[in-house]
Design a protein that fits this description.
- By secondary structure, the chain is mostly beta strands.
- It has a single domain, classed as Regulator of chromosome condensation 1/beta-lactamase-inhibitor protein II (Methylamine Dehydrogenase, Chain H, 7 Propeller), CATH 2.130.10.
- It is 0% helix and 47% strand.
- It is built from no helices and 29 strands.
- The chain has a five-stranded antiparallel β-sheet, with no helix packed on it. Strands 4-3-2-29 form a four-stranded antiparallel β-sheet, with no helix packed on it. Strands 5-6-7-8 form a four-stranded antiparallel β-sheet, with no helix packed on it.
- It starts with 7 loop residues before the first strand and ends with a strand.
- Keywords: Signal.
Length: 290
């Protein structure tokens, strides 16, 4: 990864007028995009109902800072705040939210550059690195990125420099938790980053290939089986669900998208008991959201 000079610039990518979240900000519920991409809905736990909060979108992005959506032709990004959608910039390759920062990748493949939002207005974006393949954000301003080839993992150290922390040859999955812990899942199994250099500690017994990590914990699933497992320590991974097409972990719960997007479910927190959040209709995507 080439380390770029840090400069403040008006970025074509995203002019996101979002203030970075405080440490207490949380993703407290689940949002979904309908299967026909015609509406965005949000689950209201107090009334046990789905409320439509937006119209047509090509994709939605969740996290502790805000709910974001791209328009149908992916040329603009919108932020949902207090019942209102605001156009906040042009479409980019990726947007990720941590618990204290917001990052984006420019859409100019193959040179996807990394930018950090400084919270000082639409022009306050800082180029901090790149080119990159994907971004992963977690606690505070914790940030990781893969290289364009997808076989190196880099860590943004103290908001100043990039350090390579892992090289791998096989396809893999990564996730960063609210506590700042970084996880790698590949042919070597599940590894937990030590927080220093390229030191990784094995977490044995992981039975799946896809990570789902959030404030509620560490989970792993497999798209071929639909099963979901919870990590509770040691080598213990009890199965808590089956039949999910995908899953999402917020700060207060775990959610599943049923096969074919036919329904959305929330884990009870006990055994393999799930409650259907009725009324969603068929959906294509679920994300944790404030």
């Amino acid at each position: 990864m080439t380390i770029c000079t840090r400069v403040i610039s008006l970025v074509w990518l995203l002019a996101l007028a979002i203030t970075p979240a405080a440490a207490s900000d949380t993703s407290t519920t689940i949002c979904a995009l309908s299967a026909d991409l015609s509406k965005v809905i949000r689950w209201n736990a107090a009334t046990s109902t789905w409320n439509q909060v937006g119209g047509a979108a090509s994709a939605i992005y969740g996290g502790p800072i805000a709910l974001l959506a791209t328009n149908p032709d992916n040329t603009a990004v919108f932020e949902y705040t207090s019942g209102t959608w605001t156009a906040i910039g042009n479409g980019g390759a990726q947007v990720v939210q941590g618990y204290g920062a917001l990052y984006g990748l420019t859409p100019n493949e193959p040179n996807l550059m990394i930018w950090e939002y400084l919270g000082l207005g639409p022009s306050s974006w800082l180029e901090i690195g790149g080119p990159a393949g994907n971004l992963y954000a977690g606690a505070g301003s914790e940030l990781f990125a893969t290289n364009p080839a997808g076989n190196e993992l880099w860590h943004f150290v103290n908001g100043a420099t990039w350090e390579q922390v892992l090289f791998f040859e096989a396809p893999a999955d990564f996730a960063v938790g609210r506590d700042g812990n970084a996880y790698f899942l590949g042919d070597e199994g599940l590894l937990l980053w030590s927080g220093n250099g390229n030191g990784w500690t094995p977490i044995l017994g992981c039975p799946a290939s896809t990570l789902y990590v959030g404030g509620f914990g560490v989970f792993a699933g497999g798209s071929s089986t639909g099963k979901l497992y919870q990590y509770i320590g040691g080598e213990v991974w009890p199965m808590i669900g089956i039949g999910g097409e995908s899953y999402a972990v917020s700060d207060e719960g775990v959610y599943a998208l049923g096969l074919g997007g036919a329904a959305v479910y929330k884990w009870s927190g006990s055994g393999s008991i799930w409650e259907e959040l009725q009324g969603s209709g068929t959906v294509s995507q679920i994300v944790p959201c404030p």
